[in-house]
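Problem statement: downstream parser choked on a complex file, so we are re-checking the raw output for the iron/sulfur cluster run. The parser issue turned out to be on our end (a line-ending mismatch), but while we're here, posting the original submission so the record is complete.
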Amino acid sequence: MSGKTLSKNILSKNILSKNTPGKKTPLTNAVPAGKPARTKPSRATLPEGEYLCMYCPGKCCRYFALPIDTPETRREFDSVRWFLLHERATVFVDDGAWYLLVHTKCKHLREDNRCGIYENRPAICREYTTAKCEYEDLWVYDQYFELPEQVEEYREAVLNNACVRSPFPEG
Ligand code: SF4
Ligand code: SF4
């Protein structure tokens, strides 16, 4: 998982270009008449002098994630289930570590996907880097829970040492 996540290995990230002062090119989906549509380049094909953030909808400013304890007991799984009773909350597992992920946009992300408080942005934003950001992230995790029922099913499988896959439907 790449991302602006409050964890020991991600706190040292830095948004370099997203908020670079002087970047004037507005990001918009509208293509001016007579101009070719811009396609999102890969990291490898990014034109010299341009920034990944120029092609990004501000992915790193649209959520936050916090590490949580790995659930081991029925009560602890129930707490994870409680997280997922809330709108826009999900839980993912990456490299064995569990995280609460809340899909919510920063209040200061502007319509043009730039930071509205560049000079006063928090340290976690200052320290974030495009080098390992989620520009090309496919959002694939070891485990990803969106529904309370998924946690219940997983809990029963883990605590009962059963298969974590749902049975095939009959018929
Ligand atoms: S995800 Fe990466 S490219 Fe996109 S806005 Fe954040 S730092 Fe820039
Ligand atoms: S403060 Fe700025 S850089 Fe940080 S999350 Fe909000 S919009 Fe993004």
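For whoever reads this later: The pocket of iron/sulfur cluster (ligand 2) is lined by residues 15, 19, 61, 106, 108-109, 115, 117, 121-122, 125 (CB under 6 Å).
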